[in-house]
Amino acid sequence: MSLIQLTATDLLKKLSAGEVTSVEVTQAFLDQIESADKQVGAFLSVTKDSALEQAADVDSRRKAGKPVGLLGGVPVAIKDLLCTKGQVTTCASKMLENFIPPYDATVVRKIREADGVLIGKTNMDEFAMGGSTENSALGKTSNPWNLDCVPGGSSGGAAACVAASMAPLSIGTDTGGSIRQPAGFCGVTGLKPTYGRVSRFGLIAFASSLDQIGPMARTAEDAALLLEAISGHDPMDSTSANVASPQFSQTVGKPLEGLRIGLVKEHFGDGLDSEVEATVREAVKVYQSLGATISDVSLPHNKYAIATYYIIAPSEASSNLARYDGVHYGHRCDEKQMIEQLAAEKKAFEESGDEEGLRNMDTSLVRMYRQSRAEGLGPEVKRRIMLGTYTLSAGYYDAYYLKALKVRRLIRQDYDTAFKEVDLIVGPTTPSTAFKTGAKTDDPLSMYLEDLYTVSANLAGVGGISIPCGFSTTGMPIGLQLQAPPLAEEKLLQASHMFQQATDWHTRRPELS
Ligand code: GLN
In this structure, are 168 and 66 located in the same domain? Predict the structure, then answer.
């Protein structure tokens, strides 16, 4: 098997046995990026030189018998919304196209400290708003299983690069499904941890009460390794949970006895593709054969989850994105041209004697904000800012935002009730498999419905994982979602590993020409 086909866990074994060097491993993935990424488009930037330098440093320490970190010279790709010191971090937006952060996000720092080799930054929906990566202002990403299909989103590049063997590990973020959905669409393993498990310091915020960073990999074992490297309390993020982080890589292999699995009635209703349903039900039988007991549970408020999410997330986004005005942060319009245009407008009003027009004219400052934002932000981001500004405005705040917060509480209570009966909730990650590029771009609502089974976990703050559980007749991967009570990532990973020991869906790779 070639190096790029190996899991991170297997690469680590070879690295520590001295059978291969980190420079060789890194070069193998760089070569694959060189040949496959022309078709897939997973990366926005590749940091070849610094990756090889980092790899050489790990190799020399290993050779000298000095300590080497948990990730021991294995490459990791990073979604391009985590700050990387000295290296452009774009959020796939024209607004931040030239932004070079002066510091590392905590997760990036931890990966460096664990000797993960930072190989590049991956494409995504602009500011993580979307479910197909089509909202990227900086490039197109294709699904490695069918280049005419989307990879999912917003962490589409992070999922596609693992599926196409361009990196063994990647970092994604999940605000409403953006790790799990692309993992499902690309046939890889993606874990959204409990809110607070991983520090958000240095993550460019979309919706701060929902955003969470997590690992994407081929296997649960590899996801456990990366989660162990990045999780833990961080004084720089006051919402990071002040609890000890388990050694996920040590516990992932322990099978769970007497596992109680709940199937959410509401996840098997309208809108679910019949092939996806049949495949997921087969996967549940695998758990049964491994000794798990299966019962039905209900999340009665799940039907309000999409509506609730699409009020709360845009509300927070409208506030978080106010800083991109060309002064505090981001793209600034051409000021000279803008001043000339304002002067021309003024002259025209004066000549026509339009008093009202003159009175309502922008000041140059307001025009600069307005124009910078108009040029720097894409249509979906603007839609969210407008939605959020509306739902937070006086007179509508109570009816929308406050109401949504109350429903959010009910959604969380549904989970608390369900988890009294079962250890894990299992169901489909998405209602269907990856769709054709362009199929949903003109219909935002149908795009939002992709998140039907994923947004609740973010609203409730619980963890969830998507693992490959089969393929459609058209050859597209199908994802199985497992959700667990707060801070039960060990269980999620163990249960996923059990499934992956009993099946081989996760070992399949797309054939790229
Ligand atoms: N698809 C969802 C959205 O567009 C989720 C995005 C995410 O998790 N970042 O908001």
Answer: yes
Catalytic, out of 142, 154, 170, 456: 154
Is the confidence at residue 513, as pLDDT, over 80? no
Q: Give domain status of residue 512, yes or no.
A: no
Boundaries of domain holding 361: 325-376
What letters, b where the CB count within 10 A reaches 16 and e where it falls short, cover 3-22?
bbebbbbbbbeebeeeebbb
Task: Establish whether residue 428 lines the binding site of ligand 1, counting it when its CB lies within 6 angstroms of any ligand atom.
Answer: no
**Is the CB of residue 211 below 6 angstroms from any atom belonging to ligand 1?**
no
Give the C-alpha separation, 145 to 352, whole Å. 61
- The pTM of the full predicted model, rounded to 2 decimals, is 0.97
- 401 inside domain: no
Q: How far is the CA of 140 from the centre of ligand 1 (A)?
A: 17
Cβ neighbour number for residue 442 with a 10 Å cutoff: 8
* Residue to mutate (ligand 1; options 125, 216, 312; most atoms within 8 A of CB): 125
Is residue 1 very low, low, confident or very high in pLDDT (cuts 50, 70, 90)?
confident
Catalytic residue among 132, 136, 178, 318: 178
Looking at the CA of residue 207, tell me the nearest atom of ligand 1. 9
